[in-house]
Amino acid sequence: EVQLVESGGGMVQPGGSLRLSCAASGFTFSSYDMSWVRQAPGKGPEWVSNINREGGRTYYTDSVKGRFTISRDNAKNMLYLQMNSLKPEDTALYHCARESGKATNDWDHWGQGTQVTVSS
């Protein structure tokens, strides 16, 4: 059974930092590209970042470029998102998601998410 379990969310002031983690199990982690996807209250899912299976290529949505860094540790089956200079508009439920490989931003498994709240 594929499982993706996120952790590391919380409440932080604007300008602060958080590091999200995603523990993957039930599949060969190193064989899949992975993404972070967020969903703000009342809005649809928004792709944030993805990383290829080897970890050598990363992509970001424009609003987080220069502030967020995605990484992975295939030996530990872990995905990470380092978030710096957080803004109130980054407030959302953050999910890690497995890319299906059939199309861009086509995810076949999601975790339950970890809440990030940026507020003064």
Note down, in words, how this protein is organized:
- With 120 residues, the chain is an all-beta fold.
- It contains no helices and eleven strands.
- It has strands at residues 3-7, 10-12, 18-25, 34-39, 45-51, 58-60, 68-73, 78-83, 92-99, 107-110, 114-118.
- Strands 2, 4, 5, 6, 9, 10 and 11 form a seven-stranded mixed beta sheet that branches. It has a four-stranded antiparallel beta sheet with strand order 1-3-8-7, with no helix packed on it.
In a few lines, what is going on in this structure?
By secondary structure, this protein is an all-beta fold. The protein contains no helices and 11 strands.
Q: How do the strands and helices of this protein lay out in sequence?
A:
Elements: E1 3-7, E2 10-12, E3 18-25, E4 34-39, E5 45-51, E6 58-60, E7 68-73, E8 78-83, E9 92-99, E10 107-110, E11 114-118
Parallel strand pairs: 2-11
Antiparallel strand pairs: 1-3, 3-8, 4-5, 4-9, 5-6, 7-8, 9-10, 9-11
